[in-house]
Amino acid sequence: KLSNTSSLSLGFLNTYNQLTIDPSNIMWGSQFNGEYHDPNISSGENFAKNAFGYYNIATGIAFTYGKEEGYMSLYDQTHIQVGLSTYNILSPNSYNSILNDTVQQRYCLYGKGFLGIPHTRTGIMGSFLTQLQGPNLEIILGAYYRIRIKEASKITGYNKESAIALGGVWRYGDALCPGVLFEIKDYAIGISYDMTLSKLLPATNTMGAIEVVFRIQTNNQFLYKGYSPGI
User: Fold this and answer.
1) 70 partner at 20 to 30 Å CA-CA among 50, 57, 142, 176?
2) CA–CA separation, 177 and 164 (whole Å)
3) Which ranges constitute the DSSP H helices of the chain?
4) For residue 96, what pLDDT is reported?
5) CA distances from residue 61 to 5, 83, 90, 202 in whole angstroms, order as listed
6) Comparing 159 with 53, which gets the higher pLDDT?
7) CB 101 within 8 Å of CB 93
8) Predicted TM-score (pTM) of this structure
9) How far is CA 129 from CA 125, 193, 229, in A?
């Protein structure tokens, strides 16, 4: 904790991955004798059981800033979080002796936040995500306009806050996803429409996809206790 309004977090992830393939139970088309599958017929395939494992490490850092509402109806609450992480630090060979195919390091930069508009029941929720792995680049930008429908009790907590948010997400070189999100207490349900903007547009005949999300917010910043940054 850096101050009453900000904190800095550092994390590590250590994993062990194991992959195994056993061809003994695979049924090949060449083993069909005209009536049924016969495992006694040679498949003509020449590879044996293979298994291997590897360690991997990831690490990241996150800065969090949060300011509670000045008073109940002011609605000037602000909270922002920005993080940077690195995955596949050991760059393991994902196929071991089968194929020389190294898992490239992946770098991730993200941010999310909320900016309340004073003396209103509204605010702006925004987020971004950028990931780089070798030649692959992913950029996602999103923003929602949040409208508080019901204010939460500041002392007793009996009345839970509810809100609706309208906005969308843009994925670089891929799609635009307008959506709506409903929040009640610790729960949120949303629906969005994935509109293809990439070169796949002719193949999809301009048709997108409807997506539904259900979320349980274990650290809801809008609960009656207010928001304060933590590790």
Assistant:
1) 142
2) 17
3) 201-204
4) 55
5) 17, 6, 18, 41
6) 53
7) yes
8) 0.75
9) 14, 19, 21
